[in-house]
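Record passed on underneath.
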Amino acid sequence: MHGVATIDSCGICDAVPSNDCVKDCEDVWGGGKILDCNGICDGTNLPDRCNVCDTDPSNDCVSDCVGCKQSDVIGQKGLKS
């Protein structure tokens, strides 16, 4: 009689397909690299509060003391942002 366990691409032998390893963004089985918000494998870009994806903190939008983005507050005052 044969069991139902198989060896996945990372060498793990079990019968649970939901925990099988997958390739990371460099096609390495079981690797830990992921795509950043600009689609760069193992990149360091992060989205700011205005969803600008880069590593430049000088262009990050700021929030006021209640968490409103600066452009939201300017828009409420009738001013162009």
